[in-house]
Write a structure and sequence with these properties.
The complex is a heterodimer of chains A (412) and B (350).
Chain A (H helix, E strand, L loop, with lengths): L2 H8 L1 H42 L6 H5 L1 H9 L8 H16 L3 H11 L3 H11 L8 H7 L6 H11 L5 H5 L3 E3 L5 E3 L7 H32 L2 H16 L2 H12 L4 H8 L13 H25 L3 H9 L4 H29 L3 H6 L7 H10 L4 H26 L8
Antiparallel strand pairs in A: 1-2
Helix pairs in contact in A: 1-2, 4-5, 6-7, 11-15, 11-17, 12-15, 13-15, 15-17, 16-17, 17-20, 19-20
Chain B lengths: L1 H25 L1 E6 L2 H19 L2 E6 L4 H9 L7 E5 H9 L27 E13 L24 E4 L5 H8 L7 H5 L2 H12 L5 E4 L4 H7 L5 E5 H11 L3 E16 L7 H12 L1 H6 L36 E2 L2 H20 L1
Parallel strand pairs in B: 1-2, 1-3, 5-6, 5-7, 8-9
Antiparallel strand pairs in B: 3-8, 4-7, 4-8
The chains are: A mainly alpha (412), B alpha/beta (350).
């Protein structure tokens, strides 16, 4: 029975006063948290939502072709439309040319239909007030305008809400007949890249666990001062910037770098190994960077387990393996799961290390997202890939939380 | 009362004095460029003397995001860069998308005083540079290559080769190596068969390529012996040869010639000053000065006589470097770049 409930029975007036004062406390607490909440909302949730929204909402084509969109809406159907739509298209393209939106139209249409950009730009350049406005004129200017695929893309684009980018992010495309099909094999790359990202993340997680678990056990069972000194060796690199550590690995892994010199001097190999720009090099560097993330939660869990428990298990007749398996392991599992999950999810977003240490076939999904944002300026595709990555990551998290129980994961 | 008046007067004078440098500080120009040896050369040749002449502060930003940065700034209505340097292909595309100021040439210099194609609607040429091949003489001791196309001969020059991680240049060289003469390259590359042909040629050396992204990487790749040869921008190789006695050699055969451009983003906070800077750089004697710090040629025709004699033979436009040289077709890349870059990235990821 809570304190307030006890009070209610004793003295209703006093209970009301206590409730009032507690409400005041709660309000003050809420006010203290409010700035953080607003900050999170404004600087974290909203931008992410806005960016993800770009994956499905792109008004560029609709805004650049308002008359064409209206004309198309007025005459539903498929294939190459009638003269009225072409007249509207002519007006729209001229207007787009004047207010500098032609290029963005061409670029976004090109995302839906490869090679559309040069056709639109060339038609735009060739267009003038007294030039062709009918269907036949347009097709004479560029046969591109007489193709069904062109108008499928324009109809799709003027709808503003599109699933094209999300489909493209999983190597699919919508077909003119309304169905969904695979993209051309030479363009189908994203499923392979998602698989690669998850495979590398899993490999790095496993290696950090194999290396980190015994290390954590060792440090957790050493006398205090020595352990404190040794743990500094783990923490020092942890405090160093990821960029610096990655750059250091490029020095170490080079063909004429220290690691190769070392291996040659010890006659472990007879020729210099290619470690830079390879999967092996990438996994070595990522493992080094991620080791503390796996190690620290395991270590902090192990610290709480008294060595007397194992001794008790032995004294009750358990063999070392049984004692480890049934007494020790269940207690460190929350730390193991937390450490592995932390490393795995961080690996999914790796960007700088694959960019500097990996080869072209070792680039992870984040590298492609960055390329779409910085180089291609195709933010819709970047948003679509981010959506898929976020969904996969949250799905995986939910699955693990369900399997192990979220309260059992020692996430901090 | 008297004393308060004095204090007020002192405070006023002090305020004015404090405000004076603030007013001068307010006259400032922010430039975003690509960093490295090239930006250092721009600093020496142009930023510092211009800032001194005008009595202003010059903010130098370094970025490799180029047009993406400008696009983001203009879209967010928060433009902080007054002038930006970019590739010609980017200038054409950004001009069409309306994020750059359409230049008023009456405020800069006569448009016909520039090399062909260097004075664009939204961009002014700064310099001419060459995409070349370079090697380390400590690694390639005999049988030196004489053309960039040596990239594709892995039998004669086995080992890793560095190439820039972009479609432009590499596709042109692939076609040239496949037997297309330089003046036919863009005609072939405009056809789907030509693109297939270029990628098929690149396929033959794909596993031997180390890709670089920043202009400072090629000299590092050469110095660390990581590659036998690498493509590069000529100035990034010449500078370590001249200043650090690096054992590098430049191969000019089949070089590709490009312009660096400068543009003003729409909404530049100091538009007048930005125009003055462009006009300053476009003056013949000023345009020639960059060559002293990095061997890139002038784009203003009258500049050539101001280029020091010892710099001329190092320029990409020196007569004996021009054999089989290909001027990059920026209109082509503005039209086809999006599809070719996508195909290139898909090809890389496989």
């Amino acid at each position: 029975m809570s304190a307030t409930a006890t009070l209610t029975m004793a003295d209703p007036a006093l209970a009301a006063a206590v409730r009032r004062s507690l409400r005041g406390q709660r309000m003050r607490a809420a006010l203290l948290v409010a700035p953080l909440f607003v900050l999170l909302l404004l600087s974290f949730c909203l931008p992410i939502a806005a960016l993800l929204g770009r994956a499905m909402y792109d008004p560029t084509i609709h805004d650049a072709l308002p008359r064409t969109a209206a004309a198309l809406a007025a005459s539903p159907g498929e294939g190459v439309p009638a003269d009225t739509v072409f007249a509207a298209l002519g007006d729209d393209l001229l207007a787009a040319k004047q207010n500098d939106t032609l290029y963005n139209l061409a670029k976004d249409l090109n995302n839906l239909l490869p090679a559309a950009r040069s056709h639109v730009l060339r038609t735009g350049r060739g267009l003038s007030q007294d030039k062709p406005q009918t269907r036949a004129d347009f097709i004479a200017l560029d046969p591109f305008w007489g193709e069904n695929a062109t108008w499928f893309a324009i109809r799709n684009g003027t709808r503003s809400f599109t699933t094209s980018y999300l489909l493209a992010a999983v190597d699919l495309r919508s077909l003119p007949n309304g169905g969904i099909g695979a993209v051309r094999p030479d363009q189908a790359i994203y499923l392979a890249i998602f698989t690669r990202t998850f495979a590398i993340a899993a490999a790095v997680t496993m290696i950090t666990l194999v290396l980190g678990f015994p290390l954590a056990w060792l440090l957790a069972n050493l006398p205090g001062p020595l352990a404190a000194r040794l743990i500094l060796l783990v923490l020092l690199p942890f405090w160093t910037s990821i960029l610096v550590r990655t750059a250091a690995w490029t020095v170490l892994l080079q063909k004429f770098g220290i690691l190769n010199d070392f291996l040659l001097a010890l006659h472990i190999t007879d020729h210099r190994l290619d470690l830079m720009y390879t999967r092996t090099g990438l996994i070595i560097a990522m493992t080094h960077i991620q080791l503390p993330f796996t190690f620290l939660p395991i270590y902090s869990t192990m610290r709480t387990i008294s060595s007397s428990q194992m001794r008790a298990a032995y004294s009750l007749g358990a063999r070392p393996f049984v004692a480890f398996r049934r007494v020790y392991l269940p207690q460190v599992m929350p730390g193991v799961i937390a450490g592995c999950l932390l490393t795995f999810i961080l690996c999914l977003g790796y960007f700088i290390t694959p960019a500097l240490v990996g080869g072209p076939a070792d680039q992870l999904i984040a590298n492609f997202i960055s390329n779409y944002i910085d180089i291609e300026l195709n933010w819709q595709m970047a948003a679509a890939l981010s959506c898929i990555l976020l969904a996969l990551t949250l799905g995986l998290f939910a699955l693990l939380a369900r399997t192990f129980g979220i309260d059992r994961m020692k996430l901090v | 009362m008297h004393s308060i008046g004095t204090v007020a007067r002192i405070a006023l004078v002090a305020g004015v004095i404090a405000a004076l440098p603030a007013a001068a500080q307010d006259q400032q120009l922010t430039i975003a460029s690509a960093g490295g040896a090239w930006q250092q050369a721009q600093h020496n040749a142009w930023y510092a003397p211009f800032a001194q002449k005008m009595g202003i502060k010059f903010n130098e930003e370094e970025t490799s995001a180029g047009m993406a940065r400008v696009q983001a700034m203009v879209q967010a209505h928060n433009v902080t860069d007054d002038v930006v340097t970019v590739d010609t292909a980017e200038v054409l595309a950004a001009c069409d998308s309306g994020v750059l100021v359409k230049l008023d040439w009456s405020k800069i210099a006569p448009r016909d005083g520039f090399l062909p194609g260097a004075a664009r609607d939204c961009g002014m040429g700064l310099d001419v540079y060459g995409d070349i091949l370079a090697y380390n003489t400590d690694v390639v001791k005999s049988d030196p290559p004489t053309s960039v196309l040596a990239l594709f001969d892995t039998k004669r020059w086995p080992g890793k080769r560095g190439m820039q991680k972009v479609a432009a240049n590499n596709l042109e060289w692939a076609l040239e190596a496949d037997g297309v003469p330089p003046d036919q390259v863009y005609k072939v590359l405009a056809t789907p068969e030509g693109v297939d042909r270029a990628f098929a040629k690149l396929d033959t050396i794909k596993k031997d390529i180390v890709w670089w992204e920043a202009g400072a990487q090629p000299p590092q790749l050469l110095a660390s012996h990581e590659v036998v040869m690498t493509t590069a921008w000529n100035g990034r190789i010449q500078n370590p040869i001249d200043h650090e006695h690096a054992p590098f050699k430049i191969v000019w055969g089949n070089e590709i010639i490009e312009y660096d451009m400068i543009s003003i983003p729409k909404g530049s906070p100091h538009l007048d000053l930005a125009y003055k800077y462009l006009a300053y750089v476009a003056q013949p004697e000023n345009n020639a000065r960059l060559g002293q710090y990095i061997p890139y040629g002038p784009v203003v025709k009258d500049s050539v006589k101001f280029v020091p004699q010892d710099v001329l033979p190092k320029l990409p436009t020196a007569p004996d470097h021009m054999a089989n040289a290909l001027p990059i077709d920026m209109e082509f890349w503005a039209d086809y770049g999006q599809d070719l870059n996508k195909r290139f990235n898909d090809w890389l990821a496989k």
